[in-house]
Amino acid sequence: MNTSSEAPSRLISLDTMRGFTIAAMIMVNFPGSEEYVFPTLRHTKWNGLTFTDLIAPTFLFIVGVSIAFAYTKRLQENSPKTDLYKKIVIRSLKILSVGMFLNMIPYFDFSDLRYTGTLHRIAIVFLCCAVLFLNTTWKQQAVAGAVILVLYWLAMTLIPTPGVGAVVLEPGINLAAWIDQQYLPGKMWQGNWDPEGILSTFPSIVSGITGMLAGRLLLSKITPNEKVNYLMATGLSVTALGYFWGLIFPVNENLWTSSFVLVTSGFASMFLGALYFIVDILSKKGWTKMGIVFGANAITAYVLADVLALVFYISSFGDKTLNQHFVDGLINTGFEPRLASWLYALLFVAINFIPAWVLYKKRIFIKL
Q1: Is 135 helix (H, G, I), strand (E, B) or coil?
Q2: What is the tens place of the pLDDT at every residue in 83-103?
Q3: Which domain does 130 fall in, by range?
Q4: What angle, rounded to 10 degrees, do the helices at 138-158 and 175-183 form?
Q5: Taking a C-beta distance cutoff of 8 angstroms, is the pair 8, 14 a contact?
Q6: Pick from 172, 265, 275, 323: CA 20 to 30 A from residue 285's CA?
Q7: Domain for residue 241, yes or no?
Q8: Helix (H) or strand (E) holding 320
Q9: Do 174 and 47 touch, CB atoms closer than 8 A?
């Protein structure tokens, strides 16, 4: 067992976590049939938490951890911050541009364009967290995160929704939705509200901050076992705090509530702690290959899934699309419809693994 107090420059557990998170994202985004999906593989309609709801905040947490690993060394080397800012802004714009491209395919209808999405939020969180990391200590980052969560909670629960005259936290009728209706350009995901809207982006930044704090811990001089203990204990405590906060400010992904940030960041911390113990301390790495391959080109794999979906979900072959042929065929042979839909989702993940594997074997790592 490794007992060195020096943190490795690259964690296999973090790469594995990133890759499995992307694989899970592809799986839930592309069921065989939208009509047949297991409840936990859907987003909650409003308050509550499913497996699917954990995926996006876990990825933002990973973004935060990666920022700590990427920029700690540069700060130690006294790299010019001007150069770092330039790279951060360029990378954010690249991710944002790819997000806009995915929103436009396949029809490129600019009159019906959505300006928000998963990659858009990742770009904003990366930009804000990276700049914050370069200019603050971990204590200041923790304070900033806490202040954002408290202010968001107070704003959402004390400021009456304009036009309603009372505090409301219902779909399309809340302060965040009102702000989006007034100031968010383009199409909104749910007509009159958007889960990646303006106001809810602020607490999503805290999901990245919690990852930066975890990354700072992993880079500290304490022993690996102590790092695991801190990740697990802190994760459990933060999750519990989020649960109790949720009794007065419900856990809600669509609003990205403060309680949602704590519950999901706590889960992500425990997930990383478990992987770090199994993979990096016990060196049980044989099962991590899929995660490492997807993780090596995480955003590329995510984008490729949307592109391949044009063939596997949109293009017709005969009177049906490929996913409809597959799901209907399994149902006709006796498979439970939701199981048939899930199996196709897993097949689609496997299909996306092929180009990711080719890129990995050729040592091609596309960094947006």
Answers
A1: helix
A2: 999 999 999 999 999 999 999
A3: 12-30+45-303
A4: 90
A5: no
A6: 265
A7: yes
A8: strand 320-321
A9: no
Say how far residue 195 (Cα) sits from the centre of its chain. 13
> How confident is the model at residue 9, as a pLDDT?
54
Residue 336 included in any domain: no
Tell me the mean pLDDT in the region 52-67: 97
332, part of any domain? no
The DSSP 8-state label assigned to residue 200 in this structure reads T
Whether the pLDDT of residue 7 is over 80: the answer is no
Quote the pLDDT of residue 112.
Answer: 83
* Structure token pair of residue 32: 């065989």
Beta bridge partners of 320: 317
User: If phi over 0 gives left and psi between -120 and 50 gives alpha, with beta otherwise, what is residue 294?
Assistant: alpha
- Residue linked to tokens 């709801």: 53
Question: How many domains is the chain partitioned into structurally?
Answer: 1
- Tokens standing for residue 76: 């130690």
Residue 1: is its pLDDT beyond 90? no
pTM listed for this prediction = 0.93
Q: Is residue 362 part of a domain?
A: no
Which DSSP helix (H) or strand (E) runs through 330? helix 322-332
User: Which amino acid is residue 337, in one-letter code?
Assistant: P
